[in-house]
């Protein structure tokens, strides 16, 4: 988590970093150069992205996946602008490791189909597979009838996309129906067998007894 000053004169980060550690991580020789590199954040420019020109509604915004300011890890940033009236003071940000999102998807496998998280432009944010294989194209029409399910993720402009082609759905349906069909057939056979047994043990002797009584009269 961090705060970036809109004037790009200072930066606060948690957990805190020592000066020498910061210079080494950014590959710079002085704090001015380090600060410039940190506010650029590998081209994601959080101050501009959350600022009044790009974000006049003053809402929380999310960045696309990018390398962190140190260029070591792919992250996504949640950016909240800070204003004093109409004066833009800076941005509070929190970076989330993309690998953590992929672990969430991988640890909760779907009963069928594949899943991805995409942003409002259709760009891939995370996928259950480490490589994002078979990931959806931004121009894909996510139609429920063609096997797509799209769910909005609360407080973000992201969506959870699930794709299960008809062949997969049919296979899963068949696998679910077959055991039920077997149980139904076995139940019907048991019912027929019970009827035959009932006839032989109870109905037929009762009818024979009734006929015997009638003949005796």
Structural class: alpha+beta
- State the order of secondary-structure elements, H for helix, E for strand: EEHHHEEEEHEEEEH
What's the count of strands? 10
Number of helices: 5
- Beta percentage is 15-25%
Report the major sheet: 6 strands, antiparallel
- Basic shape: rod-shaped
Cα end-to-end separation: 103 Å
Q: How helix-rich are the residues, as a percent range?
A: 25-40%
Rg over alpha carbons: 33 Å
Q: Return residue spans where pLDDT drops below 50 for at least 5 consecutive residues.
A: none
The whole-number mean of residue pLDDT values reads 81
In words, what does this structure look like?
This protein is of the alpha+beta class. The chain contains five helices and ten strands, in the order E-E-H-H-H-E-E-E-E-H-E-E-E-E-H. Strands 1, 2, 3, 4, 5 and 6 form a six-stranded antiparallel β-sheet that branches. A four-stranded antiparallel β-sheet has the order 8-7-10-9. The longest helix is centred in the last third of the chain and has 51 residues, at 166-216. The chain is rod-shaped. The protein starts with a strand and ends with a helix. The model has no long low-confidence stretch (mean pLDDT 81).
Key terms for this structure?
4-stranded antiparallel beta sheet, about 220 residues, 5 helices, alpha+beta
How would you summarize what this structure contains?
The chain is an alpha+beta fold and 217 residues long. It has helices at 19-26, 31-40, 46-50, 98-107, 166-216; strands at 2-5, 11-13, 61-62, 66-67, 74-84, 87-97, 114-118, 124-127, 148-152, 159-163.
């Amino acid at each position: 988590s961090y705060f970036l000053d809109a004037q790009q004169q200072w930066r606060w980060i948690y957990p805190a970093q020592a000066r020498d550690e910061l210079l080494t991580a950014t590959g710079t020789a002085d704090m001015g150069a380090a600060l410039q590199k940190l506010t650029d954040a590998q081209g994601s420019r959080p101050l501009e992205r959350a600022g009044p020109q790009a974000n006049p509604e003053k809402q929380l915004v999310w960045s696309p996946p990018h390398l962190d300011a140190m260029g070591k890890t792919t992250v996504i940033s949640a950016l909240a602008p800070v204003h004093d009236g109409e004066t833009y003071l800076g941005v509070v940000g929190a970076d989330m490791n993309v690998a953590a999102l992929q672990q969430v998807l991988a640890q909760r496998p779907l009963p069928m189909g594949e899943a991805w998280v995409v942003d409002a432009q259709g760009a891939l944010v995370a996928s259950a597979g480490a490589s994002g294989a078979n990931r959806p194209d931004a121009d894909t029409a996510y139609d429920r009838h063609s096997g797509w399910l799209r769910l909005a993720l609360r407080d973000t402009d992201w969506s959870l996309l699930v794709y299960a082609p008809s062949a997969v759905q049919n296979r899963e349906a068949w696998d679910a129906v077959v055991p039920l069909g077997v149980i139904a057939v076995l139940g019907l056979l048991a019912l027929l067998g019970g009827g035959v047994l009932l006839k032989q043990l109870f109905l037929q002797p009762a009818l024979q007894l009734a006929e015997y009584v009638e003949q005796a009269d």
